[in-house]
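Example record used in the benchmark description.
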Amino acid sequence: MAHVTASVYTSHVPAIGAALDLGKSGEPYWQPVFKGYEFSKQWLRDNQPDVIFLVYNDHATAFSLEMIPTFAIGCAAEFEPADEGWGPRPVPTVKGHPELAAHIAQSVIQDDFDLTIVNRMAVDHGLTVPLSLMCGQPGEWPCPVIPFAVNVVQYPVPSGRRCYQLGRAIRKAVASFDAPLKVQIWGTGGMSHQLQGPRAGLINREWDKRFLDRLIADPAELAQLPHIDYVREAGSEGIELVMWLIARGAMGDESGPGTPRVAHRFYHVPASNTAVGHLILENT
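Model output (structure tokens):
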């Protein structure tokens, strides 16, 4: 049967993608960011999954204010990089896994989570930047990817509790798929940042680091954190961190210090006007 082997958590700052695409990753400003992912790229080569289930948020490319699904699963055979206003990123087309995606949709919907099934969707930097950080600049991505878009742009957004419970349902769905697939769950977005208003540029290092501690050691308790805490402490865009709780819920361990195994942890300020957080957890 299929099983979840690990989870990966990372920011998806658009400027990171631009730095890679424009050949600026070696510049002094960007070197510390990309250095934090050197271990991760080798780790992914050594622990290559058969499928990546990638949780991200769309930035008004596939969806708009005319249609806002809370949770949307991509069930297509492929997904083209989106044109976000300056042309698509020069990255490979994302190959999907329609069979596993359809199975997860069936299982999760029967577990009372309402998903929007999407059979045609462009994917923006929310999905492609994490792939670039973990894979570099390959001619094609190393495995199929199932895009899973979460609305954290327009309120109301899903609670951390709902996201964590959804992760549990996704783990159950993966485990019931009748094929020996190794699946990684990636949660992306965050960390603390605010892009507009009087607090534009807000970064809260201590809150971010404490979030990582709690995500590792006691995600069930962290999942109870109300929306207002994210907004107050991590800025208006800090709410993206609820997507990390989907990936953490899919790990399947009982919350407690020391489980699962921390393969890598990285935090850096700044990258553009945000804090960059990154974590790799392995099921033991």
